[in-house]
């Protein structure tokens, strides 16, 4: 008489199915949370960059109204040095000429026309291997001050928080594992008792009663058996 | 219904009248900014007289000659004042027109207690360049000379001094010179320090009690010497306007150039256009 079950038992099947569903649900929730957080952070970052550009423009104007035009070299250099996220800075005069920059005068061809349209504050500039977001803001009628910020992608945005997200994710999954073990146990235990009873009957032992308390399908089978 | 319509129309009328009425006060004001020396030389009195005459108030603020030229070019202020020429070819100054209105002199100022009375142009050059460093070398007591200069090379006094004395607006003065932010602090420093020497505009320096003017090549910066052009360091004082000034601005310029305006300028002790020999 075979007593071993070939392949997976009900317990393993149940555990895996439950765990899988929980994992899918948790992944969806955490993924969505990370995505929206990243999105929010990139928007915030853009706002901050814009605000910085505007404040620099007003500083540049103050300097240009009282100082030698060479002060723009100092200002563009200061802008670049102010943050690691800033790739470059330049000043485009109203006639289109760049009169101060942090490239040492060698303006990359990608910047052709960038900062010309007064209404266009941001534009993406493609350099080999990276994309820079150019922020441009008018300085009175003199021209525009331009700052190239490293473009923040979603992963960069949540980099600082990625550990928190991972820990929450793993906790949720381990909780899911416990839950699925608990559920499958609840189902398999009375099933095992029932199996023992049925086996006993088949061996001719009729007086044995099956101790199953639940009233679900398995419980009803047990009652019929008794 | 009819009553409602009437009320609605009346409300609409009020709203529109509020919307389209010119804001009182705003249209009666002009803003002037720029060179502090020009302000002291005539602008303060001239604007007072103009307000009395026309009711138009002119707010005066400082900022320096460079601000006076550039801020008017981009419409930050209505009228400006400058005590230097435009810098040739400067991108930031091409949208402004300069109108000479009066004359000023650069004066060599020392502390009132300084016993020296005269200096030559050559000596002044050498002091500014650091070739002469002790008062003893030009007949004073045995003390080191403290040269006080203004911060920017393109300020009214700095620019005109370099241009008139050295013929080079970019000339560097002695590197250990004491640097002050504007003409006011330069004059104050000289008032307080016995060994100090500086150059400033006569129109502002005249109003300080602790200062003394040195004669330049034996000539005092009197109205007459400035007028005849004998005194070596004479410069025009300008009013600055945008390339296409509004009628209100044009009217004020007309007033400043009129006999009435020029008389007010002269009354301030400043040489007006007529008093300067050879210009009118």
* Biggest sheet character of chain B: 11 strands, mixed
What is the name of the CATH topology of the largest domain in chain A?
Answer: Beta-Lactamase
The rough form of chain A would be described as rod-shaped
- Number of structural domains of chain B: 2
One letter per element, helices H and strands E, the order of chain A comes to HHEEEEEHHH
Strand count, sense and barrel status of the largest sheet of chain A are:
5 strands, antiparallel
Would you list the SSEs of chain B in sequence order as H and E?
Answer: HEHEHEEEHEHEHEHEHEHHE
Structural class of chain B: alpha/beta
Domain unit count of chain A: 2
Give the assembly state of these chains.
Answer: heterodimer
CATH class bucket of the largest domain in chain A: Alpha Beta
List low-pLDDT spans of chain A: none
Biggest interface, which chains? A-B, 11 and 16 residues
Helix content of chain A: 40-55%
Verbal overview:
- Chain A has helices at 10-66, 71-81, 154-158, 162-202, 217-225, and strands spanning 86-93, 98-101, 122-127, 130-139, 143-150.
- With 226 residues, chain A is an alpha+beta fold.
- Chain A has 2 domains: 32-159, Beta-Lactamase (2-Layer Sandwich), CATH 3.30.450; 163-225, no CATH class.
- A 5-stranded antiparallel β-sheet of chain A has the order 2-1-5-4-3.
- The radius of gyration of chain A is 34 Å and the shape is rod-shaped.
- The mean pLDDT of chain A is 88.
- In chain B, strands 1, 2, 3, 4, 5, 6, 7, 8, 9, 10 and 11 form an 11-stranded mixed β-sheet that branches.
- In chain B, helix 2 (36-54) packs across helix 10.
- Chain B has 2 domains: 28-104 and 235-272, Periplasmic binding protein-like II (D-Maltodextrin-Binding Protein, domain 2, 3-Layer(aba) Sandwich), CATH 3.40.190; 105-234, D-Maltodextrin-Binding Protein, domain 2 (3-Layer(aba) Sandwich).
- Helices cover 38% and strands 24% of the residues of chain B.
- In chain B, helix 5 links the parallel strand 6 and strand 7.
- The chains are: A alpha+beta (226), B alpha/beta (280).
């Amino acid at each position: 008489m075979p007593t071993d079950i070939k392949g997976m038992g009900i317990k393993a099947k149940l555990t895996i199915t439950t765990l899988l569903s929980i994992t899918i649900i948790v992944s969806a929730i955490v993924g969505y949370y990370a995505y929206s957080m990243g999105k929010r952070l990139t928007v915030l970052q853009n706002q901050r960059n814009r605000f910085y550009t505007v404040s620099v423009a007003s500083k540049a104007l103050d300097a240009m109204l009282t100082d030698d035009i060479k002060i723009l070299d100092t200002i563009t250099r200061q802008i670049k040095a102010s943050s690691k996220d800033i790739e470059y800075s330049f000043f485009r005069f109203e006639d289109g000429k760049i009169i101060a920059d942090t490239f040492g005068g060698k303006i990359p061809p990608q910047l052709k026309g960038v900062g010309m349209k007064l209404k266009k504050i941001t534009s993406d500039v493609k350099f080999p291997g990276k994309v820079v977001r150019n922020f441009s803001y008018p300085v009175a009628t003199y021209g525009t001050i331009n700052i190239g910020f490293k473009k923040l992608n979603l992963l960069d945005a949540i980099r600082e928080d990625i550990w928190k997200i991972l820990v929450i994710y793993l906790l949720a999954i381990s909780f899911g594992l416990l839950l699925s073990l608990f559920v499958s146990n609840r189902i398999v235990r009375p099933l095992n008792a029932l199996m023992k009873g049925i086996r006993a009957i088949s061996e001719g032992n009729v007086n044995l009663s099956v101790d199953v308390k639940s009233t679900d399908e398995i419980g009803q089978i047990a009652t019929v058996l008794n | 219904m009819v009553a409602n319509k009437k009320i609605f129309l009346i409300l609409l009328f009020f709203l529109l009248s509020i919307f389209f009425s010119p804001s009182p006060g705003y249209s009666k004001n002009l803003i002037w900014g720029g060179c502090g020396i020009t302000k002291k030389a005539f602008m303060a009195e001239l604007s007072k007289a103009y307000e009395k005459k026309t009711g138009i108030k002119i707010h005066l603020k400082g900022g320096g000659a460079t601000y006076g030229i550039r801020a008017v070019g981009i419409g930050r202020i209505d009228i400006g004042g400058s005590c230097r020429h435009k810098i040739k070819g400067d991108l930031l100054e091409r949208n402004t027109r300069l109108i000479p209105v009066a004359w000023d002199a650069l004066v060599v100022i020392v502390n009132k207690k300084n016993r020296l009375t005269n200096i030559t142009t050559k000596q002044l050059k050498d002091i500014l360049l650091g070739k002469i460093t002790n008062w003893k070398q030009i007949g004073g007591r045995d003390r080191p000379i403290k040269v006080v200069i203004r911060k920017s090379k393109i300020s009214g006094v700095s620019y005109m001094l370099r241009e008139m004395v050295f013929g080079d607006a970019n000339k560097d003065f002695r590197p250990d010179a004491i640097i002050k932010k504007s003409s006011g602090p330069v004059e104050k420093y000289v008032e307080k320090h016995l060994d100090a020497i500086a150059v400033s505009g006569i129109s502002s320096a005249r109003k300080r009690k602790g200062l003394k003017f040195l004669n330049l090549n034996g000539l005092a910066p009197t109205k007459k010497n400035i007028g005849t052009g004998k005194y070596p360091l004479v410069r025009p004082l300008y009013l600055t306007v945008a390339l296409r000034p509004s009628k209100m601005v044009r009217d004020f310029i007309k007033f400043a150039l009129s006999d009435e305006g020029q008389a007010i300028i002269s009354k301030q002790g400043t040489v007006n256009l007529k008093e300067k020999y050879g210009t009118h």
